[in-house]
Amino acid sequence: MNIPELVDYHCHVDLYPDYVNQFARCQEQRKITLAVTTTPRAWRRNVELARNAPLIRVALGLHPQLVAEFPNDLSTFREHLPEARFVGEVGIDKSPRFYQSYDQQKETFDEVLALCSKAGGKILSVHSVWATRDVLDSITSILPADKGRVVLHWFAGTFAEVGRAIELGCYFSINAEMLKKQKQRALVERIPLDRILTETDGPFTGLQPGEVTKCTEELGILHRINPIEVNRRVLENVRILESF
Ligand code: MN
Q1: Which residue stretches of the chain have pLDDT < 50?
Q2: For the chain, which terminal residue's Cβ has fewer other Cβ atoms within 10 angstroms, N or C?
Q3: What is each CA distance from 118 to 81, 168, 190, in whole angstroms?
Q4: Mean pLDDT of the chain
């Protein structure tokens, strides 16, 4: 029952209208799911929903797009961090709509990294829209690889940045939506298979939790291997990542 069949390493399971059923379904369908959250106020409820679902990992989140609106979330985050093995969604968003809160976002993200570094052993799912360099700079100076592991979610940096992230020991969670763009495909082609995970980022992509088949097919094309083999490698990557 607990032998996983596939991996969705970044999904907002609690944002689906029928989220209670979705939690149960992830487990029944044997999907390793990283249930990311956007606010630490959602932590307790998510933990409760995943109580009988060993394949679901709940992540303690503090979404960069909400940082300005809920400045007190950082203290709630701090409070729950000792209970959390997984952290996300966290990061920085410098797209035009959120640029205004950049200073606050960066300060918050740096504090999140410092807390994780101090605690040790955390696995983080990180958002870096229009802010790849900032995110990589912060990780470099605050969270060394022996203090925590980073999964870059929906990564969209340059070729140089992808190389830098690989050197830093980062993993990458890839979704089918990303792979619709040629530039992104060229980027993903450069990521070694042992650093690749699959995700949906549902419900924002319109995908259901664990709906990663299209993604593994496309990854198979890019890396010239069978999609079944892609899936097997991704499951192995999770095992190695989580043995940290
Ligand atoms: Mn997300």
Answers
A1: none
A2: N
A3: 11, 18, 32
A4: 97
Two tokens, residue 192: 């070694």
Q: Ligand 1 centre and the CA of 7: distance in Å?
A: 15
pLDDT single digits (tens) 221-244? 999 999 999 999 999 999 999 998
The pLDDT score that the predictor gives to residue 1 is 60
How far, in Å, from the CA of 108 to the mean position of ligand 1?
17
CA distance linking residue 56 with residue 49, whole number of Å: 10
Geometric angle at alpha carbon 198, from 240 and 211, rounded to 5°: 135
- Greatest extent of the chain over all pairs of C-alpha atoms, in Å: 47
Residue 91, Ramachandran bin (φ over 0: left; ψ between -120 and 50: alpha; else beta): left
Q: How far apart are CA 210 and CA 132, in angstroms?
A: 26
